[in-house]
Amino acid sequence: MRLKPKISLALCLAFTAAVVGLLPAYLALSEVEARFATTYITVEAPTEAAITLHEQIRFGLLSFTPGIAGVVLVLAALALLAQRQITTPIRTLKTATRELAEGTRLKPTILDTSDEIGDLSRSVAALAETALKAPEPEVPQPEVDEEDLQRFQEFTLLGADFCWETDASARLVFAGGRFGQGTDLDTLLGHPFDRLLTVLRDDDAPRALELVSGRPLDNLLCRYEAGTRRQLYRLTGAARYDEGGGFIGYRGIATDVTEQIETEKEAKATAFNDPLTGLPTKKLIVERGAQALGARALSGGDVAVIHIDLDTFKAVNDGYGHATGDRVLTEVANRLSDLLGPQDSLGRIGGDAFSIVQANGAQPEAAEHLCLSILKSLRDPIHVDGVNLEMTASLGCAIAAPEEGEITTLLRDADTAMYEAKAAGGNIYRLHDSAMTDALHARIGMERDLRHAVPNNEIDIYYRPVMRAMSGGIAGFETRLRWNRPDHGAVYADEFLSVAEETGLIVPIFAYVLKTACRTAMSWPNLTVALKVSPVCFLHDSLLPTIVTTLRQSNLSAHLLELEISESALLSTADTALFQFDALHELGVRLVMDKFGSGTSSLQHLQRYRFNKLKLHRSFVAGVATDPNSAEIVRSVLQMATALGLETCADGVAHEEQATLLSKFGCQTLQGPLFGKALSANRAFSLIRSEGIMPGAPKAQKHL
Q1: Which residues of 171-193 are buried (b: 16+ CB within 10 A; e: fewer)?
Q2: Contact 572/312 with Cβ under 8 angstroms?
Q3: What SS3 class is residue 240?
Q4: Cα diameter, the chain
Q5: Burial class (CB in 10 A: 0-12, 13-18, 19+), 454
């Protein structure tokens, strides 16, 4: 059965009224029953009449309950019926109407019912059908100005920042887009456009913008200035003519290139100027050198190139860090700059390398004078954060031949001469000659082969005896190296160690020698083994770990290992050496000052660092038996060392007279040609046995 919506609604209202009417009576009767029970029934002896009346009241309450429950159930059923017949159809009709309005539904929804809601849906459907059949109203299109359209197309297609148009008098009559960092374009209209912009040429010399000649404007670089603002534009434009061919002005576009130009300038400045020192880079030095060579015909002077490479900069950089290294480079650059003549050019061409182009000088005298001035200037310590760093440099100089026209050749020759100076020990200069080129090629080949020396077991270790001055017995051995270079035979250490230090190959070579020597020394009866330590190794991070690991693996007592450190190593490492010294002392390793007297700060280093032994340089030993002055110096040095608690050793002992006198002066150990050449490990072991100091070996006579 389907009721009409209005009947369903009426029934719901009637039943609701019934519930509302009965509920107060039910609640009132419940309250009477409760009070009556409290007053009469709960007494100790209620009367029979009271009990009868209470039961009648309760019966009345029980009669009300089913009635009220039934009315509520009927009311719920009527609510569900109203939901189906009223609420749901109306919601469906609402959704369909909205979809028609939005265009997502093409046909209206009709509810097939005979009640009022059905009538409403049919009326809405008829209205929708009429609306769908009606034609869309025409929207009037605005008129398009052909000139504005052309401007827009030029502006957008070419990706410009603004477009512009002038009249025959160069006054701005149209402007659109972005111009002048927020400048209101309307305020510029009517002003002469050729006065707003200045054309810049390649030499940065400005000229006026011409907008009356009719010539095309092709990508002109222009500058716009307003107060403190400055912008650069690329301007392109063409003349405009009327139907009769008369000139009526210009039309064009402009692109803001301020940021692009500034970036290009910064890149160019970086390419030609070193950001750390401010000096020209190699690229600019090459240009200036080429200009100097080209100008020789007019100036009448010669051209020289001086290449400067710091000898110990790598050790400083590794030991103190890059920040300290940068400050050293800056100070060196300042000192070099102070020595330049008016026609000279200084540049930084590498990490610790500088070049000077010296023009209009009388060569080679002018170049040699400058080289000596540079070496003298670098002798003064460089103060960085309370640390005194003493730097030296290797200088190579090349003089341009009369027919020489290539600066690259001159730079290459100066570089070759510099390597000759470095191979000679550094802190000197060398003039290039033709023989140096062959030497450079030989050095390059040596470096290439040296990289394979350790992996291929090409390094042989020999042991030179160190003798006790008083007893003549063996105190220990000092290592000596030879490199069995393929196709070249035996190469002595003096020939390849400088290359190893420059390339950093000395670090793995030292580790290999240390490991092998400690393992060999374990077969000796309580004798020392001494190794020379280069400045590069002494500052390298791997030094301490390598020594600790080697001693542990070889089981050699630390006090039997001696590390010989030259004064030049201390000059280059400075205060960083203090940390290494303390750490090595904690290990128990003995530290020897090698070549005492060869440097300029021997006494200062003895006071500063904790040495165990002092080794006299061979130059003192050579004259000890023939020159009274040398003998007195040696005696004084040995007495001083004894007072400081240092052991002493004399190097280069070649005659028995020298050995006798050194022993008399109190020198404790001796080494040199008098005691034979360096021995292989097997022959050193045989020598030890022959001395009778091996268990079970016969006692031998003393050497002295």
Answers
A1: bbebbbbebbeebebeebeeeeb
A2: yes
A3: strand
A4: 158
A5: middle
DSSP-assigned states of every residue in 211-231: -SS-PPEEEEEEEEEETTEEE
Retrieve residue 148's tokens. Answer: 């504005």
In three state form, how does the secondary structure of 447-469 look? HHHHCCCCCCCCEEEEEEEEEEC
Please, what is the end-to-end C-alpha distance for the chain in angstroms?
142
Question: How many Å apart are CA 226 and CA 224, to the nearest integer?
Answer: 7
Helices (H), 231-364: 258-272, 282-294, 296-299, 313-320, 322-338
Side-chain-side CA neighbours of 102 within 13 Å: the count stands at 8
188, 175 Cβ separation under 8 angstroms:
yes
Question: Phi-psi category of 490—alpha, beta or left, where left has phi over 0 and alpha has psi -120 to 50?
Answer: beta
Q: Which residue has the tokens 């950089």?
A: 317
Q: Which amino acid is at 541?
A: D
CA distances from 609 to 256, 603, 614, 645 (A): 65, 10, 12, 13
Q: Is 564 exposed, middle or buried (0-12, 13-18, 19+ CB in 10 A)?
A: buried
pTM exceeds 0.85: no
11: part of which helix (H) or strand (E)?
helix 5-36
Q: What is the DSSP letter of 679?
A: B
Residue 23 sits at φ, ψ, to 5 deg, of: -60, -40
User: Which residues pair with residue 252 across a beta bridge?
Assistant: 164, 237
**pLDDT averaged per 10 residues, the chain (length 704):** 54 60 62 60 58 65 64 65 66 70 61 66 67 55 49 52 87 80 75 85 70 83 81 89 90 88 73 83 88 75 90 82 90 94 89 90 89 93 86 92 78 90 89 80 89 95 95 94 93 91 92 97 95 88 93 96 81 63 90 79 72 91 91 93 94 94 95 94 93 49 38
Report H helices in 470-527.
Answer: 493-503, 506-521
What residue type is 14 in one-letter code? A
User: Length of the chain in residues, anyone?
Assistant: 704
Sign of the Cα pseudo-torsion (199, 205, 208, 213, in order): negative
Q: From residue 387, how far is each of 10, 70, 454, 603, 690 by CA, in Å? A: 106, 106, 36, 18, 51
